[in-house]
Amino acid sequence: MRGDAGIVECSYVASEVTELPFFASKVRLGRGGAEEILPLGPLNDFERAGLEKAKKELSESIEKGVSFMNK
User: Fold this and answer.
1) Where are the beta strands (DSSP E) in the chain?
2) Which residues pair with 9 in a beta bridge?
């Protein structure tokens, strides 16, 4: 809001970080808004398993949200 550049915050955005159309990711913010969506980075086996489990539930939620918006 002050015009600062290079701030990184988590945000739920349209992205290609996963195969899902939307995902909560670290985003580099600048004067024009979201300037870069950062990759997930390395995940260990436990984190990968959790991500796969979460993606199923998130996919269903995204479908419901997109359907609602298209009404």
Assistant:
1) 7-14, 22-30, 33-37
2) 27
Q: What count of Cα atoms within 13 Å lies in the side-chain half-sphere of residue 32?
A: 2
Domain count of the fold of the chain: 1
Give Cβ neighbours of residue 45 (< 8 Å, ≥ 6 apart).
none
Q: Which structural domain, as residue segments, surrounds residue 59? A: 8-70
pTM of the model: 0.76
Domain presence at residue 2: no
- List the chain pLDDT tens, one digit each, 71 residues: 677 778 999 999 999 999 999 999 999 998 888 899 999 999 999 999 999 999 999 999 999 999 999 98
